Amino acid sequence: MEAIRVTVRRGDVIEAVHRVHAATTDGESWGDPDLAFFLRSSCKPIQAIPFVDGYADLDDDEIAIACASHRAEPAQLAAVRKVLARAGATVEDLENGLQEGRPEGKLGHNCSGKHAGMLAACRAHGWPLHPYRDRAHPLQQRIAGLLDGEHVGVDGCGLPTFSTTLAGAARLLSRTPQRIRDAMRARPELVGGSTGAVDTDLMRLRAGWIAKGGAEGLFCAAHEDGRGVALKAEDGAFRAIGPALAVVLGIDELAVAPVHNSRGEVVGEITYAR
User: Fold this and answer.
1) What is the pLDDT of residues 167-224, one digit of tens each?
2) What is the Cα–Cα distance from 60 to 51, expressed in whole angstroms?
3) Strands 160-165 and 256-260, bridge-based pairing
4) Contact 194, 202 (CB under 8 A)
5) Which pTM does this prediction carry?
């Protein structure tokens, strides 16, 4: 099938069109299943495995925030602080940088939960705390073995990231351990945000699914029955993912996303071309 066409309409005029490629582990595809890209933040549940393997007493919020691309909401920042305390580390130990427009310095970066989890993993396994983001560090070597990417790049937060194809990304989260799945489903609002995060929305709307968005319009999800899906906006526009997911998984609640102006008024909609 052709890539999914998602339109952005303001009033009666279509202002933008996004093409979204998608693949499932059942062999269905829309667009190019061999499309290649970096996994970016979609692989956070896999990157959290060394952290979860290191402790028998982790709470759901600690695991969920290690898998998160958070919005610096109070509950999310509190969870990052909790993981840092477990690691015996401080905000200054985080090797992510600053993120424009975010509060709390490095703590407010949307990847700080992942970085805090990595510090705690190092503490649990007896690895050096720094430089934990280096490709030669034992932590990153362990993660590389879990992801098996063909090419290695540097993510926006400074960590290694790995390439895959759309079909490969559809299988990604099916390898997530049960403890991580359970925590993500228990605290979905920490993984994305309290409102308007597609990965959080999917986990709230449909039982059995875990989901994680990534940069440049990537979205991966897996069901407890083994099914997996991946979607990638060709132009990197994440706003196209919700309506495209409605096509792939039949989630009508995500089929239309409103376009708001700065007054909070609805002035258009984002939806797939029927």
Assistant:
1) 999 999 999 999 999 999 999 999 999 999 999 999 999 999 999 999 999 999 999 9
2) 13
3) unpaired
4) no
5) 0.96
